[in-house]
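To illustrate the input format used throughout this study, we show a single complete record. The first block contains the structure-token representation of the backbone; no residue identities are included at this stage. The design step must infer an amino acid for every position from geometry alone.
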């Protein structure tokens, strides 16, 4: 009972659903001004959004609801992907197409660029700055 009350208080206080949820920038692509906001009727259950690592993995027609991006440290990648998935669920997306990160060389050295056919570069440090991008998609009937 105490755990349920604490969870309700935290949700009402405006805490993030997952770390970095509020840091994810969302660009609406389907004309709905509210796409970045949680809409109760459109929401999908957390854990139901399918993760794709490229457009070629999506096997049926879809529409892109929104572009999402976030900047941070390379070592935060899993947290950022989770935040993308939660934001996509809140938008009513069926899937999320993740685009691999671009890392910038920093004082620690290293730089790595991943593309469709692989990557190239020198070793990456988890404290390097990185840019993450994804598309929230909805399957067409």
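Output of the design step:
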């Amino acid at each position: 009972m105490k755990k349920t009350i604490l969870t309700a208080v935290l949700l009402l206080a405006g805490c993030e659903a997952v770390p970095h949820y509020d840091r994810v920038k969302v660009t609406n692509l389907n004309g709905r001004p509210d796409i970045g906001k949680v809409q109760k009727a459109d929401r999908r259950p957390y854990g139901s959004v399918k993760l794709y690592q490229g457009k070629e993995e999506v096997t049926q027609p879809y529409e892109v609801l929104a572009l999402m991006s976030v900047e941070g440290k390379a070592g935060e990648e899993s947290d950022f992907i989770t935040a993308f998935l939660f934001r996509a669920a809140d938008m009513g997306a069926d899937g999320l197409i993740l685009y691999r990160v671009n890392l910038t060389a920093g004082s620690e050295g290293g730089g790595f660029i991943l593309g469709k056919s692989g990557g190239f570069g020198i070793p990456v440090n988890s404290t390097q700055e990185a840019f993450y991008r994804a598309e929230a998609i909805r399957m067409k009937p």
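Structural context for interpreting the output: Confidence is low (pLDDT under 50) at residues 2-14. Residues 14 and 51 are 26 Å apart (CA to CA).
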